[in-house]
Every structure is written in structure tokens, then in C-alpha cells.
Amino acid sequence: MMFREDGTTIMTKYVFVTGGVSSSLGKGLTASSLGRLLKMRGLKVTMCKLDPYLNVDPGTMNPGEHGEVFVTDDGGETDLDLGHYERFIDESLSKIANTTTGSIYQNVIAKERRGDYLGKTVQVIPHITDEIKERIRRQGALGADVVIVEIGGTVGDIEIVPFIESIRQYRRDAGKNNVCYVHLTLVPYLAPSGEQKTKPTQHSVTELRSRGIQPDVIVCRSDQPISDSLKRKISLLCDVPSNAVISAVDAPSIYDIPVTLHEEGLDTIVLDALGMNEAEHPINLAPWKEVVQRVHSVDHVLSIGIIGKYVTMPDAYLSVAEAIRHAGFAVGAKVNISWLEAERVPSEISADQIASLDGVVIPGGFGERGIEGMVAAAKICRENQIPLLGICLGMQVQVIEFARHVLEMHDAHSTEFTSTSSFPVIDLMSEQVEVVDLGGTMRLGAWPAMLDEGSIVSTLYGANVVSERHRHRYEFNSRFRPQFEEAGLRCSGQSPDGRLVEFVEMPQHPYYVGTQAHPEFKSRPDRAHPLFLGLLQAADSRAKNSGRANSLEESVNSHA
Ligand code: GLN
């Protein structure tokens, strides 16, 4: 039993969020929105994700296929939904908040090899399911009032079965009133018949029931609101009260979702299912409504380019894009993001095209494809006073570009891409370990940095010591530091032992900043990250000085 500081006991409750019919319905955003609503009722909320795929973690997965790897403070390489959780509930999560089938099996097999199962036959039920339940219990042991558990994939997937079985058992283990099942489905509109269709929802709920779970709440995604009569139909066929059928219509922005779901009564019905008295947990929606208001009170448009390798899959840079938008809200601007393929710079994407942007981000990445395009883009931004924020690989590119074109180190490069450069300005700075396991061989998670007094970055952060999350192997090669500093690329932040360069900046430029870290992971909708805010402020000035700042109407017309 766990106790609060005032001595009262905490009875942790669990909400399991499953999805049916189709992937990409926004299960992560629905779960995150519910998390925020419960938090605004004064409850301590934490969240976790169970992913049915076989990778041990998303660290080795291709972001072009699976989306970004979200990094936690404690160095977890996790699913991008954890980014939604952190941005919505505004709590830092641990790596234990993401579990995959691969990590479950890895543990169970290690136990089997150690002889922990005392010669028993090791089976999906109970050994795999026990391990899954143990991961859920670990989240509960953190002392939250409510743990929201999202199950990746859709019911009916082969890989999801042990997870569904585990959460079914969990209600027995934790007690009926301590568990609530929320099921998300799609209610499509069929134009030829002019009707919204409930059949996919019925099938999906039938599938869930066949595994022994009767949902307490059904959240229906649709492009048109669901009528009361349709809710009654779903209620009757799926055996939930009609007020537990929630219409989750497409929202103008993701930040509108918590308010929409609250108006539909989602948090009320969840509290009810968890045996909690709503009157004891009144909601204070005001802070979130302020966020929504900021989102909708933007009065001009800025265009920011993301020049990277995986731009055909915007989810690969999800947190970067969100951080740019947050900083846009802070300067009152809607941001149009231009996704620019690095490989096409400068041949197909010209210097003029880049100069027509208000600001640029070169994000993180691995592998050689597109590097020369990024170097060309950094040169264009440096020479044409275009605000640029370089993130991780982006900073490394800024350093390579400066070395080649300002310091005349013509073959300057990173040893990630060549071992023959005479100027390895980006290099491995620690003893390299033999890579036999691609997981966890990087500088991962939160690392502190000391910022130089009076630097651009320390002014932006308003602090001299900061902590940011990392995910990389290579570093600025400190051997070359004096030449850079002398020629005008200042190393303005370093690790506390002074060995590793964490930030670079160019004081003679409107905004030319690079960081070895990934600041995007810590941006929040109501607290834009200082480095992104710096970029957007510089972009705003650039747009205004060039007379380019578009009003919202002009932008709508010019894109019509
Ligand atoms: N590939 C580079 C490195 O490993 C940069 C990594 C990144 O941008 N996250 O150092």
C-alpha cells in the first residue's frame, strides 16, 4: 500500500486504452488528452505504452518508417507517443513507460536461462502475461492516482493477444473498480449512402469481447459529430451506456482535443467507471483553455524549413515540428513548415528557395544520405543571415560547414562518414566500444551543460546550467576548438568537465545556433523551448524586416 505525504493511502487506478478498426486513429492523443483532463482534476497521472512489436525498443527502428525515437531523461529510446504524453500531461516519463514484446521476451528468456522457472514449461500464459502485468504494476508503484496504459496496434492483430489477455486479467488483480477500459474506434461516413456507419465499431467491440473485455467507454473517431441516435445505437449494440459513447470529431488542432473530449463527458464517465466521485475532483480547465486560446489567436504566418533526410515522413521529426509550433504560438504566429529533402539541396532546392524561408532547422539524424545537402544549406543560412537552429547532427553539419568554408579545412568531415579526413572536426570523443549490440551504445538521456556568461544561449535559457536530452555517438572534436572560436563560431556551452562541446553560436549572425542535444523533447505547448523561441523570434524579425510577414488571410489566399 502506498501513502501520500499527508498520510492518506493511494489506491492506484488504471485506464487501459485499446484501438480497433484502423491504426492512426489518434489513440496516443486521446489517451494523452484524457491524462491532461484527469490531471486538471487534481489527480496525479502517469502514462505508459505497451507496444506489441518484436523490437526490444524503437532505438534501432527506421524513423522513416516508424516515426521519431522519443528520448526520455533516463536515456530510454521510446515510442513517439511518449512525446504526446509528456507534452500533454507535462510530466517527464521514465524509460520504463515503454514496453515492447521484444523486451518482454528478452526478460522472460533471460529468466528461463537462469533457471528461475525451476524447470517448468515456459508459456505465453502465465509467463509472458505475468511479465506484462509486472511492467504495468511497476508504473503503478510510482505513486500515481491514475495510470493510463495505451496498447499499441489494433484488436485483432496477432501480436496484441498477450497484451489484451494481460489487461483482462489486470481487472481481477487490481479490483473491478480500479480498472477502466476505453476503446477507440472509427465511425466512417459513406458518401454514397450519406450515412455514418457503426458496423466497424460493432465488429471491433465484438473482437474485444471475444478476448473477455467489455469496454466501459467507446470513443468514436469521425469527421462529423456523432448524433444522439447513433450513440444510442452503438450503446445498444455494444452494451455501454449512451453517455459512454464519446464522439471524437476531427479537431482544428491537437490542442483542442482535451476540451472536446471533456465536453463529451469522457473524464466524467472514466471517473465513474473507476468508482471515483466526480464532485471530489472538480476540474480546472482554465490553464489548458489558455493554451487553446494561444493556438487560435495567432495573427500572422511564418515559414520554417526543416531540411533533413526523412522529410517524406513528418512523424520522423514530430517533436521538432511540435517545438517549432509551440515557439510560433509564443510569438503569435502560425508556422507553415516546409519539409525539404536534404539530398535535393542545392540542385533542386536552390539558395533562393531557402532564402525565402523565415528560418531553418537542420534536425538530428544518422547515416550519410543528405549530409552534403545539409552542409550546403548551412552555408546558405550562414552567408545569407537566415536564422538556423542545428540539432545534434544539424550542429555537427554547422561545424563541418564552418571548417570547410571559413577555416579552409577543405576535407573537414565527421568520422561517422569517413576515416580519411585530414580534419575530423566531428569525432568519437571517448574510447569506442566494440559494437555488438546496436542498442544503447550512444550518449543517451539527460546531460548537464554549462553555458558561457553573456552567450546567446545563456540569455535565451536565462540560466548558466541547463540539462538537455542526448542521443548520439559523435562529438565536436575539441582539438580544433581554438580555430573555430577565433574565426567566429563560439563554443558557448560545454559539459561540466569542459571536455564536450554542447552548444555553438555565431554572435555576428541574427540566429545561428547549434546544440549537440535534442531540445525538442522538452518543449511544451505553454512553455516554448528557449532555443526554438530564439529561432522564431529571429524568424519573426526577418519576416517583418523584409516586409514578408503574411497575415493569416493572405496566407490562406496564397495557398488556395
Ligand atoms: N549521427 C550523429 C551521431 O551519432 C548525430 C545523431 C543525432 O543527430 N541524433 O553523433
Tag the structure with descriptive keywords:
560 residues, single chain, 36% helix, 19 helices, disordered C terminus, 10-stranded mixed beta sheet, 26 strands
How would you characterize the overall build of this protein?
The chain has 560 residues and is of the alpha/beta class. Helix content is 36%, strand content 22%. The protein is built from 19 helices and 26 strands. The strands form 6 sheets. Strands 14, 15, 16, 17, 20, 21, 23, 24, 25 and 26 form a 10-stranded mixed beta sheet that branches. Helix 14 (371-383) packs across helix 15 (393-405). The longest helix is centred in the first third of the chain and has 17 residues, at 124-140. The protein is globular and about 70 Å long. Residues 556-560 have low confidence and may be disordered. The chain binds glutamine. The site of glutamine (GLN) has 10 residues, from strand 21.
Give a brief rundown of this model.
The protein is α/β, with parallel strands linked by helices.
How widely separated are the two ends?
60 Å
- Class computed from helices, strands and strand pairing: alpha/beta
Q: What compounds sit in this structure? A: glutamine
Q: How would you state the average pLDDT, rounded?
A: 93
The biggest beta sheet, please? 10 strands, mixed
Shape: globular
Into which percentage range does the β-strand content fall?
15-25%
The low-confidence runs, each spanning 5 or more residues with pLDDT under 50, are 556-560
Rounded to an integer in angstroms, the radius of gyration calculated over CA atoms is 25 Å
Quantity of strands, as a count? 26
- Separate helix tally: 19
Q: Helix coverage percent of residues?
A: 25-40%
